[in-house]
Amino acid sequence: MSVNRTNPETTEPANYPAPWEFDGLLSDGEAVLVRPVKPSDAALLVSLHVHLAPGGSAHAVSHLHPAQVLEELAHFTTVDYVERMAFVAVVNDALVAFASYDRTEGDRHCASINVVVDDPYQRRGVATLLFESLAAYARTLGFERFLADIGSRDSNVMGVLTATGLRMTCPDDKFPMRVEIALHPTPEFRVACDEREATAEAASAASILRPRTIAVVGAGRRRGGVGH
To answer: What domains are defined for the chain?
Structure first.
C-alpha cells in the first residue's frame, strides 16, 4: 500500500538521499511514508507542538514567539545528511514523527539521537521504523554508536530502544539517564525486525479482509433488485 507523498514540486537539496524513502506499515497496519527530512519540513514539524532543543531533548514552546519556533525547527530540518541526519514519518501529508542524529563532537563514530512522535501515533511502531532507518543510514557512514538522553517523561523511547534487540549500555537506571546503543545488528535485532514486519503485514491484511464499511455500486431504485 502506498502513501501520498508531500508536494513533489518542493525543491530538494542536491544531496537529498531519495533511495532511503519507503512506504512502511505501523503495528496496526496503517501505511506511513518514511523519508529523509527536507528543509521545507520545518512548517510541518510545528504540528508536533514541541521544541527540539540542542542535545536531544524536547520541551514545550508556549513561551516562544512563532517566528522563533520556525527558526528553531528550521535548524532540525536543515541537515547535511552526513554529520547531521533526520527521518520523518508522513501520513496523509501530515508529519507525525521525527528522528534525528547529530555526530558527537570529538568522536566520529558516535552520534546523539532525538525521537519525537505525535500523541495519536504513540505505541504504534512509528518510532521503531524511524529508529531502524536512522541506525541503518548511520551504519553506512561508519557510525558505531548512538547516545540517547532519556528523561522521566521519555519512558516510551526507552521501551522502543530496548525492543530493538540492539546492545545497550546504561550506567544508571534512574532518570534522567544516558543510554549508549551499539549499532551493529545482533541476532535479537534481526528477529525483532522480522516480528515487527510480520505483525504489521498481518494487521494490514486483516483491515482489507474485514473492512469497516462496504460500498454497493449500481443499486437500483426498485426494491428487491440489485443492491437491495
So the answer is: 18-204 (3.40.630.30)
